[in-house]
Design goal:
280 residues; mainly beta; Porin; 12-stranded antiparallel sheet
């Protein structure tokens, strides 16, 4: 069937607008809290993908092992593969798997841009949600179910991306459901320079992953889970090539994050990051 493809191996799960973009293409130094909420990482699995002949419609299904999906492994996690003892620890099928169904539809396509709407549904088959003890490699995405809806507009020099995510039944049972929103305009002020702004907001009692940020919880005493957070990112990207922007770029970013827990201000602070990102 024309447009149908299958791949098997180790690749990134495609859930949320951020994670449907490659590492080389993201406009911010780090992915948003909404995307990193699930701590998805390159993982073992199988993907079935269909792309329509006009490239305006994409449908896909990913079935992936639960072993490498998250950096929030349980304390009994075994890494047989890392110790050179075979593939059992690498694949982690003893904790079953998770599945993602997704699709994107482009419309109003013209020489100057397009509109696109996307949707994804993710379900974790881990027995941890049914009152049973999780297996030794339980590293799912921390929620039983999650839904992501995205809308993207590209018109001339402006690209605007929005993403609404809802997650249900937190794995450890301590938190409630979670709702997150990401708004991200990118404007090209020069063929070699883009300005970037991103707003991220999340709410859910003890269900917002402040620990999704690799710096805050390693440099402060802040806990990984809070009740709500808001983050404002301001950045600029300088490209070596205007035609191939993802080939080499210097990224400058500043993000202010405020988080609340148990009705009190829990964390308020700035992060300043710079990155050189190359892709060949």
């Amino acid at each position: 069937m024309k447009g149908l493809s299958v791949r098997v191996g180790k690749f990134a799960p495609a859930f949320t607008s951020d994670f449907r973009m490659s590492n080389a293409s993201i406009p911010c130094v780090e992915r948003s809290y909404v995307a990193n909420q699930f701590a998805l990482d390159t993982n073992w699995g199988v993907e079935v993908n269909y792309t329509s002949p006009d490239k305006k419609n994409i449908l896909y299904m990913q079935l992936m092992a639960n072993d490498r999906a998250s950096n929030s492994c349980n304390h009994n996690h075994r890494d047989d593969y890392g110790r050179g003892e075979g593939f059992k620890g690498e694949f982690g099928w003893e904790d079953e798997c998770f599945v993602i169904f997704g699709g994107t539809h482009k419309f109003n396509v013209s020489e100057s841009g397009y509109h696109a709407i996307s949707a994804e549904y993710m379900h974790d088959f881990s027995t941890a949600y049914h009152g049973k003890n999780p297996g030794a490699n339980n590293c799912g995405f921390d929620f039983k179910d999650a839904v992501s809806i995205g809308y993207e507009i590209k018109q001339g020099k402006l690209t605007f991306t929005s993403n609404l995510v809802a997650a249900f039944e937190q794995q450890d049972g301590n938190g409630t459901n979670n709702i997150g929103l990401q708004l991200q305009p990118v404007y090209a002020i020069h063929p070699h320079v883009d300005l970037v702004f991103r707003y991220t907001g999340m709410t859910g009692h003890d269900a917002c992953k402040l620990g999704a940020d690799r710096y805050i919880c390693t440099q402060t005493s802040s806990a990984s889970w809070v009740d709500s957070l808001h983050a404002f990112y301001f950045g600029a990207n300088v490209y070596a090539s205007a035609k191939h922007k993802d080939a080499a770029k210097i990224m400058f970013g500043a993000e202010y994050t405020t988080a609340r827990k148990d009705g009190k201000d829990y964390y308020n602070g700035w992060e300043f990051t710079t990155a050189l990102r190359c892709n060949f």
